[in-house]
Amino acid sequence: MIIKIENLNYIYNPNTPFEKKALDNVNLNIDKGDFIGLIGHTGSGKSTLVQHLNGLIKPTTGKIIVDGMDITSEDANLKEVRQKVGLVFQYPEHQLFEETIYKDIAFGPKNLELKEGEVRERVKKAMELVGLNFDDLKDRSPFELSGGQKRRVAIAGVLAMKPKVLVLDEPTAGLDPRGRDEILGRIQKLYEEEGITIILVSHSMEDIARLVNRIVVMHKGKIAGEGPTKEIFKQAEELEKIGLGIPQITSFMRKYKLEGNKVRDDILTVKEAKEELINYLRSRGNA
């Protein structure tokens, strides 16, 4: 287990007329190598929860253990915590500020007081992981890039810290379809090839279905459900009650089955649906 959350509560503006309980007795275990999809409608507590994971927010009450370290204790080394858990906010490109891509990605490693050779290797590796050519781009300004490329530079800056856990809060927000697909492809490759634990916050049920192996559902600051991706998306009615949906292709296959067609209704992607429908139609043709 890499993250253990115990009885976590967080209250914004306590003891004021604007007091709001954002997290309500959250308990959650995340195993090393998990790819978690964190879903819930706006205001459900998703972003508040992930900001606790590297110490940006201190809980009102409760405990968080990251890689054996109690990050909620008074003497917690937050610098070490933030090396272990990398957090990529929505629109991370707004945090780019250096004059070159190299300097921007190197900012974190340099703050660790690493030798220049190690910094360079980390920048090169991080750029490779997000699909940016080191030699071609290292000396360019990040502000000359497309939206998707800027987003990848920002993610590379977090990866250069070599985190054990990568938290991505709506990483495709505001991108065009091409930029969105590039980012999602890189995230998937990062997980498959580097084995890093990933927590993905997203409103897109299609993205969640395509990428993650486990889902955590949040509602009104509580965990309303958790489990394997297919199991959670089987609970369409429960998800709809709290303002969420299921992938469109899953909804189609459920309806198609209800019409008397003998197909699986736990399909999550268009690719899966295509294979299932071809097999089903072939079986009917051979009947």
How would you describe what is shown here?
The protein is α/β, with parallel strands linked by helices and 287 residues long. The protein has two domains: 3-229, 3-Layer(aba) Sandwich (Rossmann fold); 247-287, no CATH class. The chain is 42% helix and 21% strand. The chain has twelve helices and ten strands. The chain has helices spanning 46-52, 78-84, 101-111, 116-129, 134-137, 147-159, 177-194, 205-211, 229-233, 236-241, 248-258, 270-286; strands at 3-12, 20-30, 35-39, 61-66, 69-70, 85-88, 165-169, 197-201, 214-219, 222-228. A six-stranded mixed β-sheet has the order 6-7-8-3-9-10, with helices on both faces. β7, α7 (177-194) and β8 (197-201) form a beta-alpha-beta unit.
Q: What's the short version?
A:
With 287 residues, the chain is an alpha/beta fold.
| Helical residue percent band | 40-55%
Uncertain spans: none
Radius of gyration in whole Å, from Cα? Answer: 21 Å
Count of helices? 12
Task: Kindly list the characteristics that best describe this protein.
alpha/beta; 12 helices; 287 residues; Rossmann fold; 4-stranded antiparallel β-sheet; 6-stranded mixed β-sheet
List the helices and strands and how they pair.
Elements: E1 3-12, E2 20-30, E3 35-39, H1 46-52, E4 61-66, E5 69-70, H2 78-84, E6 85-88, H3 101-111, H4 116-129, H5 134-137, H6 147-159, E7 165-169, H7 177-194, E8 197-201, H8 205-211, E9 214-219, E10 222-228, H9 229-233, H10 236-241, H11 248-258, H12 270-286
Parallel strand pairs: 3-8, 3-9, 6-7, 7-8
Antiparallel strand pairs: 1-2, 1-4, 4-5, 9-10
Helix pairs in contact: 3-4, 3-6, 4-6, 6-7
